[in-house]
């Protein structure tokens, strides 16, 4: 390995844009990410069928804007689990050339990607846009709990209560960053946490 070179596992995201060579388009989003879908629907629409699956949250609800743009192509779900159930049904019925778009927080993006992968869709064939907060989901390597909405470089595991150093190593399978006990060698020696993922 050359000096100064390392492999970073953190994914890179881009703004969603239509993939016009397609048979159909399926969009999934939640909460604040509804804004990303609104922006996409304001662009020149593709000729192929569009399906939008959206889960509003307490923090943000773009249902009204989306229905004015997507009409009967929009499906709004009160629970995220219902959105994933419908998404899986669509994946089971999809034909080759269906394009998938996901907008949301990082954990949401990788839930969509993992579900799509279970139906033979390659990760690179899912367009992803990270919306709103940069907060991370953190996987505790000690108790295997995933803590969500972590905005600091050191987090308390919601499972085992250990203080975890939030690493940049990202697991696409888990949709989370690795968290390691920060005071393993010196118990109780925990630096002050800093907000780095607002």
Question: Strand count, sense and closure of the main sheet?
Answer: 5 strands, parallel
CATH architectural label of the largest domain: 3-Layer(aba) Sandwich
The CATH C-level name of the largest domain is Alpha Beta
In spatial order, strands of the major sheet run 3-2-1-4-5
Beta-strand content bin: 25-35%
Structural class: alpha/beta
Low-confidence stretches: 1-7
The run of helices and strands is: EHEHEHEHEEEEEE
Shape field: elongated
* Count of helix runs: 4
Determine the N-to-C terminus distance. 33 Å
Number of strands: 10
On the 0 to 100 scale, the average pLDDT is 91
CATH superfamily heading of the largest domain: Nucleotide-binding domain of ferredoxin-NADP reductase (FNR) module
Question: How is this structure best described in words?
Answer:
The protein is an alpha/beta fold and about 200 residues long. The chain has 2 domains: about 110 residues, Rossmann fold; about 70 residues, no CATH class. About 20% of the residues lie in helices and about 30% in strands. The chain is built from 4 helices and 10 strands, in the order βαβαβαβαββββββ. A 5-stranded parallel beta sheet has the order 3-2-1-4-5, sandwiched between helices. α2 links the parallel β2 and β3. α1 packs parallel to α2. It is elongated, with a radius of gyration of 19 Å. The N terminus is likely disordered.
